[in-house]
Amino acid sequence: MLTPLITEIQRFCLHDGPGIRTTIFVKGCPLHCPWCHNPENINPKQEFYYHASKCSNCGQCLTACPSGVDNPEHDDCIGKTTDRSHCTSCFQCVSACRFGARETVGKFISIESIVQEAVSDRIFYQHSGGGVTVSGGEPLMYPEFTRDLTYRLKVKENVHVAIETSLFAEWHNIEPLLKYVDLFIVDIKTPDPQKHQHVIGGSLHKILSNLERLLEARATVRTHLPIIPGINDTSQDFEAYAEYLGQFANQLSGVDILPYHSYATGKYVQLGRSYQYLGVPDLPAQQLTPLVNALRQQGIREITLGGMVGSSPAVENVAGTRSLKPRRDYFSRPVYSPQGRGVVVTQR
Ligand SMILES: C[S@@+](CC[C@H](N)C(=O)[O-])C[C@H]1O[C@@H](n2cnc3c(N)ncnc32)[C@H](O)[C@@H]1O
Ligand code: SF4
Ligand code: SF4
Ligand code: SF4
Fold it and tell me: What is the domain count for the chain?
């Protein structure tokens, strides 16, 4: 069985499905969305973060590195650069660093341990209608692992299971999950097949065919539409999305519009990678009103800006994208949302 490295088991998540959830992030993805806010989950292998704020410039990592990064032509700590082309991922620099400025990303955790950690928050799931979400990276890159994990969570532990996926996978690896996954959250990154192939690196046809098969099988499905400047933010894109999804208005449980945000910029730097969207401002939620209207006209059951939040998807019914109010989450902390994150804008 191909087993993924895990980058995080994140508790008390409010944006990855209904209620309070634990989200499990697997490392590895067959696609490469250049705006991805989880860049640490794209490469399936272990990497390291370099935390500049903790670095004392002691140079121990350079001395420890066997791969020539302490060669005189490299006059600086490799962690500070975006060029790790000489790096062989031996992580001797991580061991050498006494200041915690270098940190490995991704570790193997047994399915038993993942399940144990996830079910420790069962009480919160029960009170909020939450559960566990498998995300990443791409869970379907590890079909047997995901099948085994969701089987144990659903059948043995009886918790609500969601999966966040691109659906870029073979149907025979998706079908077995129908028994164990309560909610499929499916990302449609552009309605344009050519752009999908060239920018993201996978077939849109395969993804949509899998989506339609899930709907035929009567799975519970929401779609995520990440709206990315220069990729899928024109009125033609919005119309294409609405026209396609409108065919399934009665079958989809909802559509979540995710405005582009740049909060992962720092992670790209820490991973020593360049970020193609550097300087691109976050997309204001107001700009997405035409998409909301186009989807609404097609009769989509529920539309949110930013995804589901809190104890129930039906948390609040806000008439328009402008009337964004602070809300209260499960622990009565106000949830302010400049982008309209998690606001249900329409429900039928
Ligand atoms: C990181 S992906 C992981 C799961 C799966 N690989 C997928 O693409 O759905 C989780 C969600 O984050 C969204 N996302 C990624 N980068 C984003 C960004 N910069 N702004 C807004 N949403 C983003 C994706 O569109 C997807 O809905
Ligand atoms: S060993 Fe750690 S603290 Fe010292 S230079 Fe390298 S990263 Fe910075
Ligand atoms: S992980 Fe890369 S940078 Fe660090 S010591 Fe090994 S080769 Fe050098
Ligand atoms: S498919 Fe998901 S995890 Fe993979 S690069 Fe795109 S957004 Fe990131």
Answer: 2
